[in-house]
Amino acid sequence: MPAPILRQLDVLRDTTLPWRLAGETIGVVPTMGALHDGHLSLVEAAKAACDRVIVTIFVNPMQFNNPEDLENYPRTEHDDARKLERFNIDALYVPDGPQMYPDGFSSKVTVTGLTDVLCGAHRPGHFDGVATVVAKLFLQTSASDAFFGEKDFQQLQIVRRMARDLDIPTIVHGCPTIREIDGLAMSSRNLLLSDRARVTAPRLHEEMETMTAAILDGAPFAPLQEAAVKRLELAGFTKVEYLEMRANDDLSLLDTPTRPARLLAAAWLAGVRLIDNIAVEA
Ligand code: AMP
Whole-prediction pTM value? Predict the structure, then answer.
C-alpha cells in the first residue's frame, strides 16, 4: 500500500497524536532518499519492532559541507515511494527546506569529541548538521525508536550520544551494513560512480577484509595500513582520507584490537567519496 506522504509538520503531528494516545511505539527511519536495500533493511527492522513506522526523506543542506555535493545528491522521491509500498509503512515524511529551517533558524546541536575524528576531521560542520536534523526528526515524529545503519558507524555513535545527552527518549538501533554481491557497501552515492569506477569500488572493502584478517593474526597495524593505502592508490583511488582502527564505544584510535573495534575508511574514487567500516573480530 502506498504510504501517505506528509510534507507539513502540523500534519505529521496530527497523524502521530492518536498513535501516541494509544500508547503505540513509533519507529522512525531517517534517510536522504535514493533508497536502496540498505535503507529498506532498516525499514524491515522498524516494521518488526514497532507498531507504527515513519520513513523520512530529507536531503539536509546543513550536513553538506560542499555545495556541489548537495546539488549532485540523487533525488528519486517517486521511485523511493514505490520501493516502500511493500512494507506498508504508516507515513512517509518529506519536509522541504523551509519546513525544517524556517526563516530565522539559529540553533544547532553539537556533539563534541566523537565528531573531531574520521569524517568529522574531513567534513567541517557535517556532524552538527546531522545531530541537529536528527534531533529535530526525533522530536517532530515523537519516535520511540529509530533505526540507523552501521554503514555510517561514526554517525550512529554520535546520534546515540546526542539522544542520551539531551534526554531524548528515542531508542537508537544500529543495523548491519548491506552490501552488493561484490562486497561494496550500498550507498546512494554509488549511483554517481562511472561504470569503470564501479568495478574498482569494491577494492576498498576487499583491502579492509584483508587487513582485518592480518590484524587478527597479530600483524602490526602501521605497515598493513601503509600497504593497503598504496594498493588502493594503484587501483585508482585518488585519496584515502583515513584507514584507521578505532574503539567501538568512544572511537579512540587503536593499533591492536584490545577492545571491541572497527576498521573504518573513507576514500575518493573518480570524484565520489566512499566510506566503509567493518568489525575487527574473529
Ligand atoms: P542516508 O540516506 O545515506 O543518509 O542513510 C540513511 C540511513 O540508512 C542511515 O542510517 C545509514 O546508515 C543507512 N544506510 C545507508 N547505507 C546503508 C547500508 N548499505 N546498509 C545499512 N544501512 C545503510
Answer: 0.98
